[in-house]
Design brief:
The complex is a heterotrimer of chains A (about 160), B (about 325) and C (about 675). With about 160 residues, chain A is α/β, with parallel strands linked by helices. Chain A has one domain (about 20-145): Rossmann fold. Chain A has helices spanning about 1-10, 35-40, 65-70, 95-110, 130-145, and strands at about 25-30, 50-55, 75-80, 120. In chain A, strand 1, helix 2 (about 35-40) and strand 2 (about 50-55) form a beta-alpha-beta unit. With about 325 residues, chain B is of the alpha/beta class. Helix content of chain B is about 30%, strand content about 15%. Chain C has about 675 residues and is an alpha/beta fold. In chain C, about 25% of the residues lie in helices and about 25% in strands. In chain C, the strands form twelve sheets. Chain C has a five-stranded parallel β-sheet. In chain C, helix 12 links the parallel strand 22 and strand 23. The relative contact order of chain C is 0.10. The model of chain C has no long low-confidence stretch (mean pLDDT about 95). The chains are: A alpha/beta (about 160), B alpha/beta (about 325), C alpha/beta (about 675). At the A-B interface, helix 1, helix 3, helix 4, strand 4 and helix 5 of A face helix 6, helix 8 and helix 10 of B.
Chain lengths: ~160, ~325, ~675
C-alpha cells in the first residue's frame, strides 16, 4: 500500500508555482495571538494572504487531533500561536500546551512529516509586527515544501 | 549459569513464593504466566488455589504484560463483598514499570498488589523467528545454552539467543521491577537510567523522505486490528479515539494516512507513559515491529524532561507537569 | 424584543437556518473586497438561507436589519462578517438577544483585521481569505448550541495597586461611593512622583499644596485601608472574586506607637542618599521619605542600619516604638475589582554617553532639577550647581532624552510631559534669576493641553527663554565643570557651540522596571511600548483584557497629572459600575466532562491552573473527573491533553472546531 502513496507523489513531482499561495490553518489563542493578529490589521501591516484563522481560548485547548486533522484534510500548513511563556491569560495553559507541542513536533518529524508543515509560535497582543513576520516566515516554509500531499487522506 | 537453568530456578522460586503467599492468605490470587497453547508463547493465568501453583511458568516467551490484568479492569478480581482482591503478580521489569505508571494514573491500587519481582533476561522475538521459519509448522521450542532451538516435523533450527530477543530487551536497562514486595534473585535499584539512544539518533539522522519511506513501509501491512492496543498495559481508555464518532477525527479505513494517523496518535498518547515492554510488537499478527517508535518515546521524554516512565511513583509524567524553563527550540522565531 | 417579535426556540435538533450579514465597514472592507460577490458566495454555502450586506452592520440601521431578518427568515444561526469579534461580538450578541434568539447562536467572520486590512495590496488574496472565513464561520455555526449566560457576584471592594495621584484619586472616588478600597503602595508613603514635584504646569500651582490634602483625605477615609510599604504577591480568582495576597514589609518601627516626633533621626548616626531627593540630599537609616509623608510614621532601612541600638533607647524613642525583630506580615483580602496604577520610572540617561550624565557633575535629570527647584527640597528652592554649589547663570535643557528615539537607546514614544516641565522649570528659574540665560533644545514643542500653548508662548515672549530647534550631538566638560554643548540650530541651519553652567536632561517616562511582575500576577498584557495595554485604544481605554481589572495613570502610558487623574476617575467609575450592579455576566464557556468516556487518570487535575478539576466517585462510571464551574475559566488545557477526548469546552467544542478544520473547500 505504501508503494501506491509514493507513486502518486512521484507522478505530480514538485512543480512549485512561485505564485502558489499555500492554504494555512492558524489556531490562535484569543488573548494574545488573535489580538496580535488584530493589531497587525489595525496597523495595516501587510502579510501574505495565506492564513485562515480558528480562534481558540488558549493554546492549551489545542488537541493534537486539530493539527493532524488539518493536515489529513488537505490544509497545506498549520500555524499554532499563543501567548509567550509566562503571559498566558490562563496562567499556564500555554506551558501545558508547550510540552504537548514539543512531543507532537518531534513525532511528526520522526514519522517523516516535512518540518515546516506545522509551525508553532508565540505572539503577544502587542506584537502585530511579529505576528506578521512569523506568518510570512511560516508561509515561506510551507511554500518551499509545496502542496501537502504526504499526509493527506487519499480516499 | 545458562539461561535455561536460570529460568528454571526463577520458575521454582515463583511457585514457592506464590504458594506461600496463598497459604498465608497474604493474597487472594496470583497472576502469572502459564504454558501457551502454541509454541513460542505463554498465557496469563489467575491462580486461586495453592495446589495450582505448579501451573506457573517462567521462560523467555512471557511477552504479555500482566499489568493489563488487574482490578478494577478485571471484574473477576473484584469480590462483590470484599471489594478488590489482594493480588500477587509475577513481575518482570517492564511489568513493574507499568504497575507504577498505572498507579500514578490512578488506575490500580498498589496496596492490593504484591509484586513478585523477577530479573528478566529478555523476551524472544517470536515474530522474527516465525518469519524466518516461514510456512513450516513449529512444534517445540526450547532454550538451551545460548541458543533458541526450534523443532518441527523434519527440521530443527537454532537461533543465537542474544540476537533473537526483542530489540527493546537488548536495550533494556530495567530488567527487574523498580519496586518489589518480594524478589526472585536480584532486583536492582533505579534512580536514573542512562541510555545513549544511538538507535533512535541513527534513524533521526535520515532525511524526512527516508524516514517517511521507512515508517510507511513498516506500517504498510497494518490492518488496524488494534491487537497492539489490546495488549498494551497503558491503553485503557473506555473508548479509544479511533472508536469515537463524535466527531470522527479519524476514519476507520485502511487508507495509509489513517493507519499512520492511528500510530502517530497512539505514540502521542504513549509519550511519557510507554514502559517499553514490547507487548504490542509481540502480539502483532502481521509482525510489525514497533520498537523503533517505542524507543523514540523513551528517548523523547528522557532527553526533554529527564523522565523515565514507571520508575518513580512520586514523579509526575511529562504531560501532567510543566516547567517555565522547558526547551522550546522548535518554536518559530524572527530571524 | 417587541410584542410582534416571537422568541425563536433552538434545541439543536432543528435544521440550521443560517443568515450571513456582510459588513462594508465603509470602505475598510468594501474598498478591498467585492462585497456583492461575498454575499453571493455565502448564499451558496449549505444551510445558509439568507445573506445580505450593509454599509455599517454595527450601526443602528444595521442592527435593525439583522433583527428584522432573524424574524422574517426564521434564522436560528447568525453570522456577521465584519471586524474582529474582539470588537463587536458583544454588540451583535445583544442584537440576537433582542431579536428573541439565544445570543450564543452567533459567530463572527473576521474579514477586516484578518483580511482586508492585512491584504490591501492583494485584493484577490483578501477575497479568498474572506470567503474562507465566512465558510469556517458557517461550519462552526451549524454546531452552535444555545447557552445560558452565567452571572457571578462582584464583591463590593477594590484593590488599587499604586498610591500615586492616580491611585489616590481612584481610591477616594470609590471610597466616597461606599466601596471598600485596599490601597497598596510599595514605598512607605503615598503621593507618588507628584510629591516630588514643585509646581505644576501650566497653572503654576504648588504641587504639594494640592497633593498633600488629598493624601490626608486618603488616610482619613474609613473605607480606604491604606497598605503602604506593602506589595501584592499573589492574585488568584476572577472578576468579582479576586483573592489577593499582600505582603506588608517590616517597618521595624511600631506604626501604632510611633508618634512621628522625629527625635530618632537626630540621633541616628547613619546617613545615606535620600531616594525622594534622588540622591541630592541625605536621610538617616531611620526615616520618613519627606516631612508631609502619609502615613507619617518612621521606617528603618535595614540595608543601611548598623543596629547600634541608639534609636531604641527609651531616651530617644519615648513610646518605645522600635522593633528590630519586626517580621513581614502577609494578609489576604478578597476584592471584586482591581485598578492598576503603578506609575512610571524616569528614563535613566546614563546609557546615552554623549550627554555625560553620571560623568559630569553638572549634568542632571529633569526630576533632579525639580527637587532643586522645590521649596521643600534639599535647597529650599534655590538651585545650585552640584559641582560647586553656586547658582548657575546659564542653563541648557535638552528635550526628548530617551523619548522619540528610533535609534538605539531609549524609547520610541513621546513622553508627553517633558516639553511642559522643561518650560515650567525654565520659567521658575527665570522668575528668580531674570538675568539667567536659559536654552531649551527641542525637536518639536508639544503643547497640546489646556493652557499649554499659551504657557509655552509666554515662556518665550515674556521670560526670554531661548528655544533652539536641534538635537544636541554631544557635550563635554569645559573649565570649572562647565558644560560645552555642540548642536545645530536647524532653523538657522548653523552649528552652535555653547558653554553653560548646568545641563538638564528632560528625561522621559518609562514603564516600571518591575512591570513584568504585575503582568504575570494579574495576567494582563503590555503593549509594545511596555506600558499596560488597554482593552481597546479608543473605546475601552481604562479596561485591561482581563475582566475586572482596570488601569489608570501613567501605568497605561505617559500622561500629565490632569490626564492621569481623569483616567483614574474613569477607572474608578468603571470598577464602580461593576460593583454597583453586584453581579456580572460571564461567558458560559467552561469545560464539561463526558462521564462515559472519562477514565479518571487525573491528568486534567494536574493540568488545571485553577484547581477546577477533581476526581470524584460516580456510582455508574467509577472514578471520573468533575469540573467545578465556578472555578473553571474555560481555557481548555484539560481538553487539549485528554487522551480519551472526555472533556469538551463550551463555545469551543471539538465538534465546532472539527467542522472548521474539515471545511476547507
Amino acid at each position: 500500500m505504501s508503494k501506491v502513496v509514493f507513486e502518486t507523489e512521484d507522478e505530480e513531482e514538485v512543480k512549485v508555482d512561485k505564485d502558489w499561495k499555500p492554504r494555512i490553518l492558524a489556531f490562535l489563542c484569543n488573548w494574545c495571538s488573535y489580538a496580535g493578529a488584530d493589531l497587525a490589521g489595525v496597523s495595516r501591516i501587510q502579510y501574505p494572504a495565506t492564513v485562515r484563522v480558528v480562534r481558540v481560548p488558549c493554546t492549551g485547548r489545542i488537541n493534537p487531533f486539530f493539527i493532524l486533522k488539518a493536515l489529513t484534510d488537505g490544509w497545506d500548513g498549520v500555524v499554532v500561536s499563543g501567548c509567550h511563556p509566562g503571559d498566558c491569560h490562563y496562567i499556564s495553559g500555554n506551558l501545558v500546551a508547550r510540552r504537548r507541542f514539543a512531543l507532537l513536533n518531534e513525532l511528526l518529524e520522526f514519522f517523516g512529516i516535512e518540518p515546516g508543515r506545522v509551525n508553532f509560535m508565540w505572539a503577544s497582543a502587542a506584537e502585530g509586527e511579529r505576528f506578521a513576520v512569523l506568518i510570512e516566515k511560516a508561509t515561506e516554509r510551507v511554500k518551499k515544501l509545496g502542496p501537502n500531499k504526504r499526509f493527506l487522506k487519499k480516499w | 549459569m545458562g539461561i535455561e537453568e536460570e529460568n528454571q530456578k526463577i520458575e521454582k522460586s515463583i511457585r514457592d513464593i506464590a504458594r506461600d503467599l496463598l497459604k498465608n492468605k497474604e493474597v487472594d490470587v496470583i497472576i502469572g504466566y502459564t504454558e501457551g497453547t502454541v509454541p513460542l508463547s505463554t498465557s496469563p493465568i489467575i491462580i486461586r488455589d495453592e495446589k495450582d501453583v505448579d501451573k506457573l511458568v517462567w521462560n523467555n516467551f512471557c511477552y504479555i504484560n500482566l499489568a493489563k490484568y488487574l482490578a478494577p479492569r478485571m471484574p473477576q478480581l473484584v469480590d462483590p463483598e470484599k471489594g478488590e482482591l489482594k493480588v500477587g503478580i509475577v513481575t518482570k521489569g517492564c511489568v513493574g514499570r507499568a504497575l507504577i505508571q498505572l498507579a500514578i494514573e490512578k488506575q490500580i491500587n498498589l496496596d492490593n498488589v504484591k509484586i513478585i519481582g523477577i530479573p528478566c533476561n529478555g523476551i524472544v522475538n517470536r515474530r522474527r523467528i516465525e518469519k524466518e521459519i516461514g510456512e513450516k509448522e513449529i512444534l517445540e521450542v526450547s532454550v538451551s545454552e545460548d541458543n533458541i532451538i526450534v523443532k518441527g516435523k523434519n527440521f530443527e533450527e537454532s537461533f543465537p539467543f542474544s540476537e533473537y530477543i526483542n530489540e527493546l530487551c537488548k536495550q533494556c536497562k530495567i530488567k527487574s521491577p523498580p519496586k518489589v514486595d518480594s524478589c526472585v534473585g536480584e532486583c536492582g535499584e533505579y534512580e536514573s537510567v542512562f541510555d545513549e539512544f544511538n538507535d533512535v539518533k541513527e534513524f533521526e539522522s535520515k532525511t524526512p523522505d527516508e524516514k517517511w519511506e521507512y515508517i510507511n513501509d513498516l506500517l504498510s501491512t497494518c490492518t488496524r486490528c488494534y491487537a497492539c492496543r489490546e495488549a498494551c498495559p497503558m491503553c485503557y481508555c473506555n473508548l479509544c479515539f479511533v472508536d469515537q464518532n463524535k466527531p470522527i477525527w479519524f476514519g476507520k479505513t485502511t487508507d495509509q494516512t489513517e493507519i499512520l494517523m492511528f500510530h502517530l496518535i497512539r505514540a502521542m498518547h504513549m509519550a511519557g507513559r510507554c514502559v517499553a515492554c514490547g507487548a504490542c510488537s509481540s502480539v502483532c499478527p502481521v509482525g510489525i515491529d514497533l520498537n523503533l517508535i517505542t524507543r523514540k518515546l523513551e528517548q523523547m521524554v528522557k532527553e526533554r524532561y529527564n523522565f523515565t516512565s514507571g520508575i518513580d511513583i512520586d514523579k509526575f509524567p511529562p504531560m501532567m507537569d510543566f516547567e517555565m524553563e522547558d526547551e522550546q527550540e522548535f518554536m518559530l522565531e524572527e530571524d | 424584543m417587541t410584542e410582534t417579535e416571537k422568541e425563536i426556540i433552538v434545541t439543536g435538533n432543528e435544521k440550521p437556518r443560517i443568515g450571513v450579514f456582510v459588513c462594508h465597514c465603509g470602505v475598510n472592507i468594501a474598498g478591498v473586497i467585492p462585497i456583492e460577490d461575498l454575499v453571493e458566495y455565502a448564499k451558496t454555502l449549505p444551510d445558509v438561507v439568507f445573506a445580505t450586506e450593509y454599509k455599517f452592520m454595527c450601526s443602528d440601521v444595521g442592527q435593525t436589519l439583522i433583527k428584522e431578518k432573524i424574524q422574517e427568515q426564521n434564522l436560528n444561526r447568525v453570522i456577521v462578517a465584519a471586524c474582529s469579534p474582539r470588537m463587536h461580538e458583544p454588540t451583535f450578541r445583544l442584537v440576537l438577544k433582542e431579536a428573541g434568539l439565544n445570543q450564543f447562536l452567533f459567530e463572527m467572520a473576521n474579514i477586516r483585521e484578518h483580511s482586508s486590512w492585512v491584504h490591501m495590496k492583494d485584493p484577490e488574496g483578501a477575497y479568498e481569505i474572506a470567503k474562507d472565513h465566512i465558510r469556517l464561520a458557517v461550519n462552526k455555526a451549524r454546531e452552535l448550541v444555545p447557552l445560558e449566560v452565567q452571572t457571578v457576584e462582584v464583591d463590593p471592594s477594590c484593590l488599587i495597586i499604586g498610591g500615586g495621584i492616580a491611585g489616590m484619586n481612584a481610591a477616594l472616588d470609590l471610597a466616597t461611593e461606599g466601596y471598600k478600597v485596599y490601597l497598596v503602595e510599595k514605598t512607605p508613603t503615598i503621593g507618588g512622583h507628584m510629591a516630588q514635584l514643585d509646581k505644576t504646569f501650566p497653572t503654576m500651582d504648588c504641587s504639594a499644596c494640592i497633593l498633600t490634602p488629598r493624601m490626608v483625605d486618603v488616610a482619613r477615609n474609613e473605607n480606604i485601608e491604606l497598605l503602604t510599604y506593602s506589595e501584592v504577591t499573589d492574585v488568584t480568582g476572577y472578576i468579582g472574586n479576586f483573592e489577593v495576597t499582600i505582603l506588608k514589609k517590616p517597618h521595624y518601627v511600631d506604626q501604632e506607637k510611633c508618634t512621628g516626633c522625629g527625635v530618632c533621626i537626630d540621633h541616628c548616626p547613619v546617613s545615606v542618599g535620600n531616594e525622594f531627593d534622588l540622591g541630592l540630599a541625605t536621610r538617616k537609616a531611620i526615616y520618613i521619605p519627606f516631612p508631609q509623608a502619609v502615613p507619617g510614621q518612621y521606617t528603618i532601612d535595614m540595608d543601611s542600619c548598623i543596629r547600634c541600638g541608639i534609636c531604641a533607647s527609651p531616651d530617644v524613642c519615648e513610646p518605645e516604638a522600635i522593633v528590630y525583630d519586626d517580621e513581614p506580615e502577609e494578609i489576604k483580602v478578597k476584592v471584586g475589582t482591581i485598578i492598576v496604577a503603578t506609575g512610571w520610572d524616569l528614563y535613566d540617561p546614563t546609557e546615552l554617553k554623549q550627554y555625560g550624565y553620571g560623568r559630569y557633575p553638572n549634568v542632571i535629570t529633569g526630576l533632579q532639577m525639580e527637587r532643586l527647584l522645590s521649596s521643600f527640597g534639599p535647597l529650599l528652592g534655590k538651585p545650585v550647581r552640584p559641582s560647586d554649589l553656586k547658582e548657575p547663570h546659564s542653563i541648557a535643557f535638552l528635550q526628548c532624552v530617551g523619548s522619540r528615539n528610533f535609534r538605539e537607546g531609549g524609547n520610541k514614544y513621546c513622553s508627553r510631559v517633558c516639553c511642559m516641565y522643561a518650560t515650567k522649570q525654565a520659567r521658575q528659574y527665570k522668575e528668580k534669576h531674570p538675568d539667567a540665560e536659559i536654552y531649551i533644545f527641542y525637536m518639536d514643542i508639544r503643547a497640546f493641553g489646556k493652557g499649554y500653548e499659551e504657557f509655552y508662548e509666554s515662556a518665550g515672549r515674556n521670560y526670554g527663554i531661548n528655544y533652539v530647534r536641534g538635537r544636541i550631538a554631544e557635550v563635554r566638560e569645559g573649565e570649572d565643570h562647565k558644560i560645552i554643548i555642540r548642536s545645530e540650530d536647524t532653523l538657522l541651519q548653523q552649528p552652535i557651540e555653547l558653554e553653560v553652567d548646568m545641563f538638564v536632561l528632560s528625561c522621559g517616562l518609562e514603564p516600571r522596571a518591575d512591570a513584568d511582575k504585575i503582568t504575570s500576577l494579574l495576567r494582563i498584557q503590555r503593549s509594545g511600548d511596555g506600558f499596560f495595554m488597554e482593552a481597546h485604544p479608543k473605546l475601552r481605554p481604562v479596561d485591561t483584557l482581563t475582566e475586572g481589572i482596570f488601569v489608570a495613570g501613567v501605568a497605561q502610558g505617559p500622561k500629565d497629572i490632569p490626564d492621569a487623574v481623569a483616567q483614574a476617575k474613569g477607572a474608578a467609575s468603571s470598577a464602580a459600575a461593576l460593583m454597583a450592579k453586584g453581579e456580572v455576566e460571564v461567558e458560559p464557556f467552561f469545560a464539561v466532562v463526558s462521564p462515559e468516556r472519562c477514565i479518571g487518570c487525573g491528568m486534567c487535575v494536574e493540568n488545571c491552573a485553577y484547581g477546577a478539576v477533581e476526581l470524584v466517585e460516580d456510582r455508574r462510571f467509577g472514578t471520573i473527573a468533575s469540573i467545578n464551574q465556578a472555578l473553571c475559566k474555560g481555557c481548555g488545557a484539560c481538553a487539549g491533553n485528554c487522551r480519551c477526548s472526555a472533556i469538551n469546552i463550551k463555545g469551543f467544542t471539538a465538534e465546532q472546531i472539527f467542522e472548521m478544520i474539515t471545511g476547507r473547500f
